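Office hours follow-up: a student asked to see two folded examples consecutively, so here they are.
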Amino acid sequence: MPEFKIQHITKYSYDGFVRDSANKIILYPITDVYQEVLKHDLIITGHPQVDTYIDYYGNQVGSFTYTERHNSLIINSQVSVITHPKPLPLDNIFSYDQWTDLFNLRHTVPYIDFLKQEYFEGLSELRPIVEQERKTDDTPYHVALHFTKYVYRNFEYIKGVTTVESTLDDVWKLRAGVCQDFAHVLMVMLRYVGIPARYVSGYICPNKNGMRGEGATHAWAEAYLPGYGWLGIDPTNNCIANENHVRLAVGRNFSDCSPVKGVYKGTAGHTLEVSVSVGYDDSPIQEEKDIFTISSASKPATSVPRNSYARYVEMMQQQQQQQQ
């Protein structure tokens, strides 16, 4: 029954003074029998009033507008949460019966949303891989684990190779990305075989075991299993998401779960910086520090950043085309 203290700082720095910053935030950890929020402090520049509501997917969402002129905006979320381990599936129902149950869910709310595929040109290339990874007598549980292992082994975890605007096809061509990319690829595989899959945003708190995804918000997937419910699976670390994963929100994809979205009036140039730190048990929440740059709107954005890995992949693709 670990207790985690998490500080999540989002900082916008603008090229000049702006006003009327309207923001939507999904920074409220999910509360259920497996996750207990002890305390949550939300400190925002200018101390605007935050109105909250529950969205279609059951997430608590906050909205606020900071009307005064400002050249920076900081959203500092500090939360203390206790997590409880969720029992693993017993998987004692015949495989055929489980697949039949899933087939019967294809037109049922809310599973329709989590079975619909996003546009993905690479699906024709992924299809034979999915069929190969899926064994004939496997239950949905074991199929989900096989797919998780495939993504973990066949995609490189490289920070900065993709952005939040990168498409599934960008990730598929690069065979690289970060946690949100891994989750999206896994969900395509699960949905293709009829397993409802949803995106989860949150934090990974591995007690300093060096797992991928530390120091920032994390993302993974959940697969719906007959007779069990939603099972969290983390393809970034090839593990089941359990008591070391703190859940913020669920949805169809990243767009449904983005921790912070906003618009403002004023100059277009701005820089977004994010920092996440995790304390354990009775350790204090760290002071604001080590904020690192995520993106800059003053520079033209591309769907795939031009870092060395992306340039290498592009060069190899060009060479292959020339040889054909």
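And the second, which I mentioned at the end of office hours:
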Amino acid sequence: MADPRLRNLKVKTGVVKRLYREKISYEKELEKERQKLTSMRQKGEDEYRVKKQEEVVQECLMMIPNCKIRLNNSWTDLKTSVEAEPGFSNTEEYQEAKKVLNEVEPNLR
């Protein structure tokens, strides 16, 4: 991998993978915290604790849009790089980048 363009492609692919995993993680955490809040309300827990849990849910909600924006930007950047380097289509880095682009694309919306 002597060509810096291949290294760049590999780095951008890694960024998209990491941000995609981060987005999924935030979404799972939000669901878990919402379930916890619902459970606390059903059990009639102390209002202060319920209020604090509502704050936790709000914090989780705030993280997701930022992560989606970063993921969309990184995905677009990777796609541009892949389209700009069709001569590398037989390399492992190029194939991995295409795979990641195809895997992440349906989940961008």
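Two things to take away from it. The helical segments are 4-43, 47-84, 92-104. The mean pLDDT is 93.
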